[in-house]
Amino acid sequence: MLVDTHCHLDAAEFDADRDAVVGRAGRAGVGRIVVPAVERANFDAVTDCCRDYALCVPAYGIHPMYVDRATEDDLAVLDQVLRREPAVAIGEIGLDFFVAERDETRQQFYFAEQLKIARDLALPVLLHVRRAIDPILAQLRRVHVPGGIAHAFNGSRQQADEFVKLGFKLGFGGAMTHERATRLRELAATLPLDALVLETDAPDMPPQWLGHARNEPAALARIAGVLAQLRGVSADEVIATTGKNARSVLPRLP
Questions:
Q1: Does residue 84 belong to any structural domain of this protein?
Q2: Number of domains composing the chain
Q3: Residues 6 or more apart in contact with residue 252 via CB below 8 angstroms
Q4: Which of 82, 125, 151, 199 has the fewest CB atoms within 10 Å, i.e. is most exposed?
Protein backbone atom coordinates (compact mmCIF):
# COMPACT_ATOMS: atom_id res chain seq x y z
CA MET A 1 0.00 0.00 0.00
CA LEU A 2 1.22 3.49 -0.83
CA VAL A 3 1.50 5.62 2.31
CA ASP A 4 2.10 9.35 2.05
CA THR A 5 3.82 9.89 5.39
CA HIS A 6 3.82 13.70 5.13
CA CYS A 7 1.18 15.79 3.38
CA HIS A 8 -0.26 19.14 4.50
CA LEU A 9 -3.70 18.43 3.06
CA ASP A 10 -5.28 21.00 5.39
CA ALA A 11 -3.33 23.81 3.67
CA ALA A 12 -5.19 26.66 1.99
CA GLU A 13 -3.75 25.61 -1.38
CA PHE A 14 -6.23 22.71 -1.33
CA ASP A 15 -9.32 24.63 -0.24
CA ALA A 16 -10.76 24.91 -3.75
CA ASP A 17 -10.52 21.22 -4.70
CA ARG A 18 -9.66 19.10 -1.67
CA ASP A 19 -12.29 16.47 -2.51
CA ALA A 20 -10.82 16.05 -6.00
CA VAL A 21 -7.27 15.87 -4.62
CA VAL A 22 -8.21 13.06 -2.24
CA GLY A 23 -10.09 11.29 -5.02
CA ARG A 24 -7.07 11.38 -7.30
CA ALA A 25 -4.87 10.08 -4.49
CA GLY A 26 -7.14 7.12 -3.92
CA ARG A 27 -7.28 6.30 -7.62
CA ALA A 28 -3.47 6.46 -7.74
CA GLY A 29 -3.29 3.77 -5.06
CA VAL A 30 -2.55 5.92 -2.02
CA GLY A 31 -4.04 4.08 0.95
CA ARG A 32 -3.09 6.43 3.78
CA ILE A 33 -2.12 10.10 4.08
CA VAL A 34 -0.49 11.42 7.25
CA VAL A 35 -1.48 15.07 7.81
CA PRO A 36 0.86 16.85 10.27
CA ALA A 37 -0.02 20.08 12.03
CA VAL A 38 2.45 22.96 12.28
CA GLU A 39 1.03 25.09 15.11
CA ARG A 40 -1.84 25.29 17.57
CA ALA A 41 -3.80 27.48 15.14
CA ASN A 42 -4.19 24.63 12.65
CA PHE A 43 -4.81 21.74 15.05
CA ASP A 44 -8.56 21.98 14.37
CA ALA A 45 -8.05 22.12 10.60
CA VAL A 46 -5.98 18.93 10.72
CA THR A 47 -8.60 17.24 12.91
CA ASP A 48 -11.42 18.24 10.55
CA CYS A 49 -9.50 17.12 7.47
CA CYS A 50 -8.85 13.69 8.95
CA ARG A 51 -12.48 13.30 10.02
CA ASP A 52 -13.69 14.26 6.54
CA TYR A 53 -11.44 11.85 4.61
CA ALA A 54 -10.99 8.22 5.55
CA LEU A 55 -7.56 8.11 3.88
CA CYS A 56 -6.18 10.70 6.29
CA VAL A 57 -4.70 10.33 9.75
CA PRO A 58 -3.46 13.20 11.96
CA ALA A 59 -0.25 14.19 13.66
CA TYR A 60 0.02 17.26 15.88
CA GLY A 61 2.99 19.43 16.69
CA ILE A 62 4.61 22.86 16.62
CA HIS A 63 6.90 23.37 13.63
CA PRO A 64 10.25 25.10 14.29
CA MET A 65 9.37 27.91 11.89
CA TYR A 66 6.26 28.71 13.97
CA VAL A 67 7.80 28.78 17.44
CA ASP A 68 8.13 32.58 17.39
CA ARG A 69 4.37 32.84 17.88
CA ALA A 70 4.00 29.83 20.13
CA THR A 71 3.45 29.99 23.88
CA GLU A 72 4.08 27.45 26.60
CA ASP A 73 0.29 27.08 26.90
CA ASP A 74 0.38 25.63 23.38
CA LEU A 75 2.40 22.71 24.73
CA ALA A 76 -0.34 21.91 27.24
CA VAL A 77 -2.96 22.11 24.48
CA LEU A 78 -0.82 19.83 22.31
CA ASP A 79 -0.66 17.26 25.08
CA GLN A 80 -4.45 17.40 25.48
CA VAL A 81 -5.10 17.03 21.76
CA LEU A 82 -2.74 14.08 21.49
CA ARG A 83 -4.57 12.33 24.32
CA ARG A 84 -7.96 13.00 22.72
CA GLU A 85 -7.43 12.50 18.98
CA PRO A 86 -6.27 9.35 17.14
CA ALA A 87 -2.85 10.81 16.32
CA VAL A 88 -0.23 8.56 14.74
CA ALA A 89 2.70 10.82 15.72
CA ILE A 90 3.82 14.15 17.13
CA GLY A 91 4.75 16.41 14.27
CA GLU A 92 5.83 18.31 12.49
CA ILE A 93 8.52 19.19 15.01
CA GLY A 94 12.26 19.71 14.89
CA LEU A 95 14.81 22.41 14.08
CA ASP A 96 15.38 24.65 11.06
CA PHE A 97 18.76 26.37 10.91
CA PHE A 98 18.36 27.33 7.24
CA VAL A 99 16.33 30.51 7.73
CA ALA A 100 18.54 33.54 8.28
CA GLU A 101 16.53 35.14 11.08
CA ARG A 102 15.92 32.49 13.70
CA ASP A 103 15.93 32.01 17.44
CA GLU A 104 17.82 28.76 17.89
CA THR A 105 17.35 28.76 21.64
CA ARG A 106 13.57 29.03 21.25
CA GLN A 107 13.55 26.31 18.60
CA GLN A 108 15.57 24.01 20.84
CA PHE A 109 13.22 24.62 23.79
CA TYR A 110 10.04 23.73 21.88
CA PHE A 111 11.70 20.78 20.22
CA ALA A 112 12.92 19.35 23.53
CA GLU A 113 9.57 19.89 25.24
CA GLN A 114 7.72 18.14 22.42
CA LEU A 115 10.16 15.24 22.52
CA LYS A 116 9.32 14.87 26.22
CA ILE A 117 5.61 14.71 25.36
CA ALA A 118 6.36 12.08 22.71
CA ARG A 119 8.36 10.08 25.24
CA ASP A 120 5.64 10.30 27.88
CA LEU A 121 2.86 9.32 25.45
CA ALA A 122 4.97 6.68 23.66
CA LEU A 123 4.40 8.37 20.30
CA PRO A 124 6.81 8.53 17.35
CA VAL A 125 7.79 11.92 15.92
CA LEU A 126 7.79 13.49 12.46
CA LEU A 127 10.98 15.51 12.26
CA HIS A 128 11.78 18.68 10.33
CA VAL A 129 15.57 18.51 9.98
CA ARG A 130 16.62 21.29 7.58
CA ARG A 131 20.29 22.22 8.11
CA ALA A 132 20.05 20.94 11.69
CA ILE A 133 20.58 17.18 11.61
CA ASP A 134 23.42 16.95 14.13
CA PRO A 135 21.68 19.12 16.77
CA ILE A 136 18.53 17.04 16.27
CA LEU A 137 20.44 13.80 16.74
CA ALA A 138 21.96 15.24 19.91
CA GLN A 139 18.50 15.98 21.31
CA LEU A 140 17.25 12.52 20.37
CA ARG A 141 20.10 10.96 22.32
CA ARG A 142 19.05 12.97 25.39
CA VAL A 143 15.29 12.39 25.14
CA HIS A 144 14.46 8.88 24.00
CA VAL A 145 11.34 8.60 21.85
CA PRO A 146 9.91 5.54 20.09
CA GLY A 147 11.38 6.40 16.70
CA GLY A 148 9.69 8.28 13.91
CA ILE A 149 10.51 9.75 10.51
CA ALA A 150 13.22 12.20 9.45
CA HIS A 151 11.07 14.08 6.96
CA ALA A 152 12.65 15.27 3.68
CA PHE A 153 15.97 13.69 4.61
CA ASN A 154 18.92 15.29 2.86
CA GLY A 155 21.88 14.51 5.08
CA SER A 156 24.93 12.29 4.81
CA ARG A 157 25.07 8.51 4.84
CA GLN A 158 26.60 8.66 8.32
CA GLN A 159 23.72 10.82 9.58
CA ALA A 160 21.23 8.47 7.94
CA ASP A 161 22.79 5.53 9.74
CA GLU A 162 22.53 7.38 13.07
CA PHE A 163 18.80 8.00 12.57
CA VAL A 164 18.29 4.34 11.73
CA LYS A 165 20.14 3.30 14.90
CA LEU A 166 17.69 5.44 16.89
CA GLY A 167 14.68 3.69 15.34
CA PHE A 168 13.87 6.20 12.61
CA LYS A 169 12.89 5.88 8.97
CA LEU A 170 13.98 8.41 6.36
CA GLY A 171 11.42 10.28 4.24
CA PHE A 172 12.04 10.58 0.50
CA GLY A 173 9.80 12.45 -1.92
CA GLY A 174 9.81 14.91 -4.79
CA ALA A 175 13.36 16.18 -4.24
CA MET A 176 14.69 12.73 -5.09
CA THR A 177 13.10 12.89 -8.58
CA HIS A 178 15.24 15.83 -9.73
CA GLU A 179 18.12 14.58 -11.85
CA ARG A 180 20.49 17.22 -10.51
CA ALA A 181 20.01 15.98 -6.93
CA THR A 182 22.82 13.48 -7.41
CA ARG A 183 23.82 13.04 -3.76
CA LEU A 184 20.23 12.54 -2.64
CA ARG A 185 19.56 10.09 -5.46
CA GLU A 186 22.68 8.13 -4.48
CA LEU A 187 21.33 7.85 -0.94
CA ALA A 188 17.93 6.75 -2.22
CA ALA A 189 19.61 4.08 -4.32
CA THR A 190 21.97 2.71 -1.68
CA LEU A 191 20.35 3.04 1.74
CA PRO A 192 18.60 -0.13 2.94
CA LEU A 193 15.09 -0.14 1.53
CA ASP A 194 13.73 -1.04 4.95
CA ALA A 195 14.98 2.36 6.19
CA LEU A 196 12.90 4.39 3.73
CA VAL A 197 9.36 5.76 3.60
CA LEU A 198 7.65 7.82 0.92
CA GLU A 199 6.17 11.30 1.25
CA THR A 200 5.04 14.23 -0.85
CA ASP A 201 5.10 17.19 1.59
CA ALA A 202 2.27 18.48 -0.62
CA PRO A 203 1.54 21.18 -1.56
CA ASP A 204 5.33 21.76 -1.39
CA MET A 205 8.36 19.85 -2.71
CA PRO A 206 6.94 19.13 -6.20
CA PRO A 207 8.62 16.36 -8.19
CA GLN A 208 10.55 17.24 -11.32
CA TRP A 209 7.65 16.69 -13.72
CA LEU A 210 5.46 19.23 -11.93
CA GLY A 211 7.96 22.07 -12.18
CA HIS A 212 6.80 24.79 -9.76
CA ALA A 213 3.17 23.61 -9.77
CA ARG A 214 1.34 22.51 -6.65
CA ASN A 215 2.27 19.06 -5.42
CA GLU A 216 -0.41 16.57 -4.31
CA PRO A 217 -0.51 13.04 -2.87
CA ALA A 218 -1.46 11.42 -6.19
CA ALA A 219 2.13 12.09 -7.27
CA LEU A 220 3.31 9.48 -4.77
CA ALA A 221 2.81 6.58 -7.20
CA ARG A 222 5.20 8.10 -9.73
CA ILE A 223 7.64 9.06 -6.95
CA ALA A 224 7.66 5.39 -5.93
CA GLY A 225 8.44 4.52 -9.52
CA VAL A 226 11.47 6.82 -9.51
CA LEU A 227 12.76 5.20 -6.33
CA ALA A 228 12.28 1.78 -7.93
CA GLN A 229 14.25 2.90 -10.99
CA LEU A 230 17.09 4.24 -8.89
CA ARG A 231 17.31 0.96 -6.99
CA GLY A 232 16.78 -1.34 -9.95
CA VAL A 233 13.77 -3.08 -8.41
CA SER A 234 10.07 -3.21 -9.21
CA ALA A 235 7.67 -0.48 -8.21
CA ASP A 236 5.58 -3.14 -6.47
CA GLU A 237 8.52 -4.00 -4.20
CA VAL A 238 9.08 -0.34 -3.33
CA ILE A 239 5.39 0.22 -2.60
CA ALA A 240 5.08 -2.91 -0.47
CA THR A 241 8.27 -2.33 1.51
CA THR A 242 7.84 1.39 2.14
CA GLY A 243 4.24 0.80 3.17
CA LYS A 244 5.38 -1.87 5.62
CA ASN A 245 8.07 0.51 6.89
CA ALA A 246 5.50 3.24 7.48
CA ARG A 247 3.28 0.91 9.46
CA SER A 248 6.20 -0.33 11.55
CA VAL A 249 7.40 3.16 12.53
CA LEU A 250 3.86 4.54 12.94
CA PRO A 251 2.16 1.62 14.73
CA ARG A 252 -1.10 3.55 15.18
CA LEU A 253 -1.45 3.87 11.40
CA PRO A 254 -4.74 2.12 10.48
A1: yes
A2: 1
A3: 57, 86, 87, 88, 89, 123
A4: 82
Q: CA–CA separation, 98 vs 101, rounded Å?
A: 9
The CATH number for 108's domain is 3.20.20.140
Residue 25's domain comprises: 2-249
Q: Is the dihedral of CA 122, 124, 130, 135 positive or negative?
A: positive
pTM assigned to the model: 0.98
Amino acid at position 195, single letter:
A
